Every structure is written in structure tokens, then in C-alpha cells.
Amino acid sequence: MNPAESRPSSAPDTPPAPSTPGAQAVPDAPVRFGLHVPFRLRVLTALPFVLAAAVTPLLIALWSDRLPDPLATHFGLDGVPDGFTGPTAFAVLAAAVPLALGAAWTVFTHRSALWGAWLTSGLIGTLLGLVVRDNLDAATAADVRSPLSHLAIALGAGAVLALAGHGLSRLVPPEDATATGIRISPGAPRLDLGAGEAAGWSRATASAPLTALALLFLAGGVLAALLGPWPLLLLAVAVAVPGLALARVRVVVDRHGLTVRSTLFPRPRVHVPLAEITGADVREVRALREFGGWGYRVRAHRSGVVLRSGEALAVRRGNGREFVVTVPDAGTAAALLNTLAERDARL
Amino acid sequence: MLFRVDPASSVPLGDQIAACVRGALADGSAAPGERLPAARELADSLGVNVHTVLRGYQRLREEGLIELRRGRGAVVVPGAAAPDRARLVARLREAAAQARELGLTEEEFVELARTSLA
């Protein structure tokens, strides 16, 4: 508590001030740097991971007299086990992995990504639970078989939970810059646009190193799968396909806001609605120093589609976060975005 | 590339869109070989009909400034001459507008262009 405020203020005409200790530390500045994530969103993000962490230990405790010791916990392509773990150790591991992932998701959560949390936890929880189910009533762990169809079951469960997560995100109010009362600063770049004039800005941008890296990864995965265990191919595909999709993107600024999407697929995309935007400008981005690499990067107070170091369009959002995308001619895009956001706020 | 259209203007919307591409090519904000936004996407951005955008793209194709290919969409013609060609087309359109103001017929204008070539 601020010492100046420690005296009892019982005067009835004082405006109701926020009483949380943190609130006094933030001055009444036009731009808030505090990262505001609704508590409800954090709970909804953590919830599926807690459930996923509980599944396997519960199953192991429930079936303790019907499971072999050790359990078969890792399987080859043919469904024959090639890895074994004690029940207690597996229960601890199966709880720790979703909890650790859940902690990371809860820190960096976002309303539009809530479905991802439910998808991830659904996949992991189902896969781990199915492993225990495979071990049920087996004489020894070596007799256990795990069909590949379990992957499809896990994907199905993940998809259903992703839909549920997407539905639940409606319980969280969207961030709205107009609701926070933040206006675009008068010094920000503007475009001279007539009252009835419609405008849009569109630009494709590509990263050659990222394309090369993704293709290299894919080739390496194929090679590794031919010589070694097949999951290496899955891993390579899981890294290379998003990498390829991110290597060529189209950035669009129009009456809907800012949209960044791959030129290969229409979804997923990054979209910042006009109503969430509190300002846009151009700045130089250093991929490694600021974002620790290339691609879609998430940091504590900013996220970005970073394809190179250099000119980038930077957008401040009503929740205090910044979104950047490296794109040429970003100055025009920033000016148009400020103009359109201001026009949108006036309506 | 910046696109701006004014529905209140007497210039048809498709022509306004074509003029944006010509201008972007001339001032270097669009490069030879660059892909233009898909017609449907641009129509949604500007709040105009898809056919309006396609009319603009068709005009640019007739002027030899872009190539339209099924599946690949609209691409600015490759080669270093594209910006100069865009400038030439823009100036020609200006001249045509001036000729119309002077009351010249189509034949008279074409004849005038032919004499200036000789």
C-alpha cells in the first residue's frame, strides 16, 4: 500500500478507487503494459490439463490388481512393446507431463487459443489412458499389444475436446480496446482517407531460410524413419508442415483488422480485430534477440510472425500485448491500420 | 500494396482497383512477379463485388501488366520493364481522357497516336 494512502479515507465523496495493491503501481497512462488475462480464462486453460493428469493415476489405482508390473509403456509400429515402466513411476510421469504442459499453457494463454489447450490435453490424456487400458489383464508386460488405431482414437478425442474448448472460449469476454478507453495516439502515422473511401492493404512475404529448413527437416525425417524408429517421421512432419506453412504468409490490413495467414492454408491464421487495436507503427525487429528465433513466436508481452530481422508492423492491443509481423512496406500498413481503427472506434 | 476505392467517384470501381495496381507498380511498392491478393479476398477487404475486382484484374491483363492463371491467381508480369510499362499505360489513359474532353472520336485518337509513332 502506498504510504500516502494508508490514512483512513472515509470521506464519502472520494471516488471508488481500485483497492488491489497492484492497481496503485500502474499510473493512469494511455498505454498499459500490464498483461491482463481474465482469471476465468486461466482456469479454463488449466482445467483440461488437470483432468488429463488425473486420468492415468486414477486408472492405475483402480486396476492395481489387474495390471502387470512393470507396465508396457512404449510400443513399436507393430504394436509390440519396446519400453517398460513400473506402475508408480508411470503414474507420476503421466501426471507430471500434462501438468508441466498445462502450466506453460496457463501462463501464455489467450482467448483465441483456448481450443489448443483442450486439444493438447485431450490427445495426451487419451494416449496415456489407452496405454494403461492396453495393459489391463495381461499376464506379463511382454504380452501387451497396442494397435495403431489408438492414435486415431486419441485424435478423435482431441478434436472433440478442441471443439468443447472453442465453445468454452465464449465464456471469456473478448478484449476490446474501446472498452478500455484507450485511443490511438495523435502522433501515430495516418493515411489521408476520404470519409466514404474503402481501403485495404495486402502483401505476401516469404522466408527462404525457413522454407529450406522445413524441407531439410522433412527430408531428415524420411531418412531417419527409413533407418530408425518410425515416430521420427511423425515428429519431422509435425515440425516441417507448420514450418512450411509459416514460411510464406500474406498480411492483410482491412476493415476487419489485421490478418496474417499462410499462403498454403487459410487456417490457422492470426487475426487482430480493429476493435482490439490501440495503435500500430513500424519498427525494426531482431528475430533472435527479441523472439529467440523465426516462425510464430510467443513471448511474455508480445507475440509475432517473425520471418526475418528488419522492418515489421507492430500492433498494440487493448490487453497490453504487442503483435508484430515482419513485412515490407509496413509503414503503409501501420498508417492504414491506425486510420481504420480510429474510424471504427468513432462508429 | 495499398488498394483504395471511392464509391462516390465517377470512375468505375474496377478501374479504380486497376489504377491502384498501376500506381503501386510505378512507385515500386509492388514488384514484378509479385502475386496480387485473390479476387475474393480483395473484394471482401474493400466491401465490393468479386466481379468488380475481376473486371479490374481483367483490364490489367489486357494492358499486359499482370498474368491471370487458373489456380495461381493474378501475378504481376515478371521483368524489369513492368514498372515503366505501368507508367506508360497510366499516361496513355490520361491522354485518352484528355482526348475525350476535347471531343475527339476514337478513330481520331488512334490516328493521332499512330502519327506520333511515325
Automatic annotation (TrEMBL), chain A:
<feature type="transmembrane region" description="Helical">
    <location>
        <begin position="144"/>
        <end position="164"/>
    </location>
</feature>
<feature type="transmembrane region" description="Helical">
    <location>
        <begin position="210"/>
        <end position="227"/>
    </location>
</feature>
<protein>
    <recommendedName>
        <fullName>DUF1648 domain-containing protein</fullName>
    </recommendedName>
</protein>
<feature type="transmembrane region" description="Helical">
    <location>
        <begin position="84"/>
        <end position="108"/>
    </location>
</feature>
<dbReference type="InterPro" id="IPR012867">
    <property type="entry name" value="DUF1648"/>
</dbReference>
<feature type="region of interest" description="Disordered">
    <location>
        <begin position="1"/>
        <end position="25"/>
    </location>
</feature>
<keyword id="KW-0812">Transmembrane</keyword>
<feature type="domain" description="DUF1648">
    <location>
        <begin position="57"/>
        <end position="93"/>
    </location>
</feature>
<feature type="transmembrane region" description="Helical">
    <location>
        <begin position="233"/>
        <end position="253"/>
    </location>
</feature>
<keyword id="KW-0472">Membrane</keyword>
<feature type="transmembrane region" description="Helical">
    <location>
        <begin position="115"/>
        <end position="132"/>
    </location>
</feature>
<keyword id="KW-1133">Transmembrane helix</keyword>
<feature type="transmembrane region" description="Helical">
    <location>
        <begin position="41"/>
        <end position="64"/>
    </location>
</feature>
<dbReference type="Pfam" id="PF07853">
    <property type="entry name" value="DUF1648"/>
</dbReference>
From TrEMBL, chain B:
<dbReference type="InterPro" id="IPR036388">
    <property type="entry name" value="WH-like_DNA-bd_sf"/>
</dbReference>
<dbReference type="Pfam" id="PF00392">
    <property type="entry name" value="GntR"/>
</dbReference>
<keyword id="KW-0805">Transcription regulation</keyword>
<keyword id="KW-0238">DNA-binding</keyword>
<feature type="domain" description="HTH gntR-type">
    <location>
        <begin position="11"/>
        <end position="79"/>
    </location>
</feature>
<keyword id="KW-0804">Transcription</keyword>
<dbReference type="GO" id="GO:0003700">
    <property type="term" value="F:DNA-binding transcription factor activity"/>
</dbReference>
<protein>
    <submittedName>
        <fullName>GntR family transcriptional regulator</fullName>
    </submittedName>
</protein>
<dbReference type="InterPro" id="IPR000524">
    <property type="entry name" value="Tscrpt_reg_HTH_GntR"/>
</dbReference>
<dbReference type="InterPro" id="IPR036390">
    <property type="entry name" value="WH_DNA-bd_sf"/>
</dbReference>
<dbReference type="GO" id="GO:0003677">
    <property type="term" value="F:DNA binding"/>
</dbReference>
